[in-house]
Amino acid sequence: MATTTKKKSSAKKAAKAANNAVHTNGVRMHISDGIPPKKAKGTFSEVPGKYCVRDISLADEGRKLIQWAESRMPVLMYLREKYRKSQPLKGLRLAGSLHVTKETAVLVETFAALGAEVSWSGCNPLSTNDAVAAALAKAGISIFAWYGNHEDFYWCIERTIDLRPNLTLDDGCDLINTVHEQYADFARKEIIGGTEETTTGVQRLRARAAAGKLYYPVYAVNDAITKWDFDNVYGTGQSTLDGILRATSVMIAGKNFVVAGHGHCGQGVAKRAKGMGANVIITEVKATAAIKAVLEGYRVMPMDEAAKEGDIFCTATGVKDIIRKRHFLAMKDGAIVCNTGHYDAEINLQELAEITKNKRTIRENCEEYTLKNGKKIFVLAEGRLVNLAAAEGHPSEVMDMSFSNQLMCHLKLAQAYKEGKKLPNQVLHIEPEQDEFIAETKLKTMGIAIDKLTKEQLEYINDYTAGT
Ligand SMILES: NC(=O)c1ccc[n+]([C@@H]2O[C@H](COP(=O)([O-])OP(=O)(O)OC[C@H]3O[C@@H](n4cnc5c(N)ncnc54)[C@H](O)[C@@H]3O)[C@@H](O)[C@H]2O)c1
Hints:
- It is a single chain.
- The chain is an alpha/beta fold.
- The chain folds into 2 domains: 11-223 and 394-444, Adenosylhomocysteinase-like (Rossmann fold); 233-384, NAD(P)-binding Rossmann-like Domain (Rossmann fold, 3-Layer(aba) Sandwich).
- Helices cover 43% and strands 17% of the residues.
- The protein is built from 20 helices and 19 strands.
- The chain has helices spanning 11-20, 59-70, 74-84, 102-113, 130-138, 153-161, 174-182, 184-190, 199-210, 225-228, 231-248, 264-275, 287-295, 303-309, 325-330, 349-354, 386-389, 396-418, 432-445, 455-461; strands at residues 22-24, 27-29, 45-47, 51-53, 93-97, 117-121, 142-144, 167-170, 193-196, 218-220, 256-260, 279-283, 299-300, 312-315, 335-339, 356-363, 366-371, 376-380, 427-428.
- Strand 3 and strand 4 (51-53) form a beta hairpin.
- The radius of gyration is 23 Å and the shape is globular.
- The termini are far apart.
- The structure holds nicotinamide-adenine-dinucleotide.
C-alpha cells in the first residue's frame, strides 16, 4: 500500500512513497488494499472506493442545476448525442480534477455517456457545488469532492487515481503532478494522455515538458481560441464581478478598481468593472498588455502606486506575490482585495497576517483584517478564485465551448490509442479545425449565420501579385 500524501510532496517524499509501494508487473498499485482515512471531520455521504460527498440528499437539487446547464450547453450536448451510439470511450478510464460545477457535471456525464468509466475530484478547495457532487454520486459517477475541502484535497485526487486511469483531465495540474511525482511508472506505462484546462496549468506542463519530465501527451485545451478568448475573457469577467458582489454587495460604480494583469482574464474583469461604472486601474509587467490597457482608457501604473488609490483589487496574473505587505500597508482603510487567478498565491496572506492584529468573518467569503496601524482590509474567498468560491464560476454558455474542446481532445487521444498511434510526450496544440468546428457549431446553435469567402475572394487572398 502506498502512503497517501495529502500535501504537495517533495521529490524526497515521493521517492520514499515509491519505496513503500507495492508493485505488480512493474506498475505501482495504490488501489485494492484499503483506503486510508481522510482528515476532515463532520458528516459525509460516503461509499468507500466509490464516492465521498458532503450530503447525498442534495442530489435532486443538484440534478436540476445540471439540467439547467445542459439546456445552455448545446454544442457539448450535440457531441454527446453524436457519439453516444458508437461509444468511442468504451473501455477507457478517465480521472478528472476540475471544479465541480453544474457545467463540469455535464462534461462528466458526457464522458460516461460515451462509454468511459470516470472518477472525479475538485481542483480547488472552495469550488465544489455540493448539490452537483451529490447528483453525480447518485447517478453512479465515482466522485470525491466537497466545498471547503482544505485537509483532504490530495486525498480526493488519490482516490480518483485508484481507478487506474488511462486518461487524465486537469485544471491546474494537481492530478498530473500527483500522478507524475508519486506514480511515475504507472504514468509512463498506463496513461495514454491527458488535457489541461487553464493557463497556469499549461505553464506548469510546459515547464515539466522542458525538463523532460512529462510522461504522456497532454492537450493544452486552455490555448484553444474557443477557450482562451472566451472562457477566460467573458467567463472570468462576468463571474468575477458576480463573486465580488455576492461576497460584498458593494457598489461598483465610482470605485477605483485595480486589476493586476491585463491578459485574458484581466481584460474580462476590467471590461465588466468599467461597464458597471468603475474607474479601472491596470498593473502589468508586459508592455504590450499595458499599451492595450491604456488604449482601452484605463490608467496604468505599478502596484506600489495603485495600492494607494484602489478601493477594490483583483489579481488575475497566475503569478505569486502580486499584493504584498508593503501594498497592504499603503492601502486605503476599507480596501477590498480578491483574486481570480488559479492559485491562492497572488495575494500574500501570510504577510498580511504578520501586520494584522485582529481578523474576523464579516459574511460568507468576506474576512476583515484589522491591521496594527488601525486600517481595515477585506479579503474575499481566502484569496482563492473569487468567481468559483463566492459565485458559481463561468456561465454555462461559455463553458459549452471550453468543455467541447475537452471532449474532442479526449476523443482524439482515444482514437490515436485505438489506432495504435503514439503521440509524443509533449504539450499538444489544438488544431485550428477543432476551433473552427466548435465556433461554427456554437454560432448555429445561437441562430447566427455569417458570410462565406467566395472563390474569387479566396483567389485574391492567395494572389501574391495583387496590389494597388
Ligand atoms: N477564475 C477563473 O475561473 C479562471 C479562468 C481562467 C483562467 N484563470 C487563471 O487566471 C490566471 C490568468 O490567466 P490568463 O489566461 O489571463 O493569463 P494571461 O497569460 O493571458 O494573462 C496574465 C497577465 O498577467 C500579467 N502579469 C504577469 N505577472 C504580473 C505581475 N507581476 N504584475 C502584473 N501583471 C502581471 C502578464 O503579463 C499577462 O498579461 C491564471 O492563473 C489562469 O489559470 C482563472
